[in-house]
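Feature request, filed as a ticket because there's no other form

It would be nice if the structure record came with a short human-readable summary line next to the tokens. Right now we just get the raw output. Example of a typical job, pasted below so the devs can see what we mean:
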Amino acid sequence: MTDLPKTQYAVQLVAPDELILNKTKDVPVPGPHQILCRVEAVGLCFSDLKLLKQFSSHVRKSEVLSGIDLDILKEIPSYVPGEAATVPGHEAVVRIEAVGPGVEDFAPGQRFLVQTDYRWVRTATSNGALGYNFEGALAEFVLMDKRIITSPEGESMLLAASEELSGSAVALVEPWACVEDAYVSTERTTLKAGGQMLVVAETEVAEGRLDNLFDRYGAPAQITWISQSPEPSGLTVPVKKATSVAELSDAGYDDVIYFGSAPEIAESLFAKVALNGLLNIVLCGGRFGRDVVSMVGRVHYGGIRIIGTTGSDPAESMETIPDTDEIRPGDKINVIGAGGPMGMMHVIRNICQGVEAVSVFGSDLDDGRLAALTKIAAPLAAKNGVEYRPYNPTKQKIPDVFDYAAIMAPVPALVAACVHSAAEGGLINIFAGIPATVCGEIDLDAYIEKKLYFIGTSGSTLDDMKQMLAKAESGRLDTNVSVAAVSGFEGAVEGIRAVENRSIAGKIIVYPACRDLGLVRLEEMAEKMPEVAACLDEGLWTKQAEQKLLEMYGDA
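Raw output as currently delivered:
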């Protein structure tokens, strides 16, 4: 094992909204199953801000409950659930510095992109992740345990990265993969096979309604029935009766069907929907008559979905579910918060996706951010023959209705507004991570009448990252177009605050080797670091600029 330093620089989150730069954090010695990596580059993300605000209440900061032998966690010093201080940072490229004696298939010097979502390692309502309940990459070194970063299928979360790419280009594969996952994810278009179903009926359910549903979309293992009316006769699924919604366990039902239009009852049902569950609202000709307080945060973090019909047949609702979350030919797409780092990626991705006859609108409240976006997006739109229209909604009223909306800000009111501006059959992608406990007042009458569908994904899969890394390595995708500023540790906390204040349009890359470097925007580079500025490509970050920066700080 190489001689390791005793201490390192690291940014730590020690309490809600309390960041410190720890200049004497211990460097862990890898145990028998562990890998110690030196961090080359790490991107700052809006998700870091969500962790900053929520800290121990964040769904990925809680304790691991299943998916691995829990005794393993006692051997991992970088496992920091709950109130323990953590190191944020999950958009990372690393190089192995040392491995424990039980690690045979990794060696010092190897370079990797890190997939930080351990989806099989379950917390109460989400999963374990690097940069959350496992210390992340805003440090000079990061420790990972092979037993945690290897999936049940035997796949490692470390993806070999080409030496041809800059550190920034590799690190930014992660957020680009999250964007890709938001579109390529598939939806459950059936009832959960062998799942638990809850039926709450304020009106008599006609004979054959549920049988027809089960014939077309599969059957649950059991139905919990709440109604003044008896269940239909002849059901082949066992029925368990309950007297009230309040007596039921939360998150206990994979499919919830509500026959009725009482808003207070609908509001009580959201909490009963299980992870990745489906709420099917059958209005039976009625209307709610007011906005319904809906758990929009669980669409993103809990994977719940909401469907409905104005009629009396729950099978009609199922027909509104798309196979995937992808944009469709002819879609008029509205990216809300398009001038931010992730919004820029959504705009570029949809312009370049090759879907026929789409138009892409980019909405942002900041004219400067819109100008920065347009500098990159407009030439791509012209090249791909796609209509691109940036706009500031405080200055320009867009009369159009949209077939697809992608929301970059975690604001329930934006979700509600998208319901009103949606075309019939519209998809509303709640990309921004509204906290799982947060609700919004939604016009579910309009949502159901227009056959809308909320979607939302969190993080990315290993396959997403493999695909985006392959695009970057082949030259088909230049992830560096997203870079707007660079920093060392001295500017890292300021960088996180810039993400919070939305004061920088693109991504901020932190280089741990550049300990004393403050936050430098690319437009300031000519004045502050002219040698680096000379290596930019028409103002865009490049591998040559990165190399020059590292040369100046003695780590190239």
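Something like this underneath would help us a lot:
Residues 196-318 form a domain with the Rossmann fold fold (CATH 3.40.50.720).
The CA atoms of residues 177 and 467 lie 8 Å apart.
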